[in-house]
Amino acid sequence: MVRRFVAVVVLLGLVAGGVALRLGYDDWRTDRTQEGLQQELSLGTAPRPVVRKDVPVPVASRSAYKKPFAELRIPRFGEDWEWAVVEGTDAPALELGPGHYPGTPMPGEEGNAAIAAHRAGHGDPFIDFDLLRRGDPVEITQGDTTWVYRIVREPWMVAADAHHVLDPLPGRKLTLTTCWPKYGSSKRLIAVAELDDVRVDDRVSAAPVASP
Known about the structure:
Radius of gyration: 19 Å
Number of domains: 1
Structural class: alpha+beta
CATH architecture: Beta Barrel
Strand content: 25-35%
Helix content: 10-25%
Largest sheet: 8 strands, mixed, barrel
Number of strands: 9
Strand order of the largest sheet: 1-2-3-4-7-8-6-5
Order of helices and strands: HEEHEEEEEEE
CATH topology: Sortase, Chain: A
CATH class: Mainly Beta
Distance between the termini: 70 Å
């Protein structure tokens, strides 16, 4: 009986160790990938914002699948929290970092732009998602333009297949999605932000951009 118990404990230890090694490797690979993606953005080879005279707000340009197009900063998650955002939200894309839902508007565009990221694993980008509070800024930078959104609806839980959270919304909104619980994916956590201002070369846009 004692031998069987010891064998079970050893087996569980090996499994736990294997899982830890796998998670550690995934985090390391994502960190290395993010370094490359952020370098690509800094070199100026990424898409540039679209500025039109008939539209008061610049709109971010799309990138190709799994390619970076902007940097994402959420101060609530820490001063050094910064991730390159890629196009795509399937498993291969989200292994690289936060991903933009194809088919949804881009930052600055009217409607409901949407970004997803892993809660845990692959660098734990949204591990503290449940800490988001109303008024928290969410900054997206492409080139010399930064779109500053502010949380207008704090995180709430939905079913894993609740695709309605990507439906169009009035104004210029940004929906963030991640898994729930932290180390599972049986449901989703959602938060919604609204565009508050746009900074170009550190200058705040003169016209308010938030909808009434």
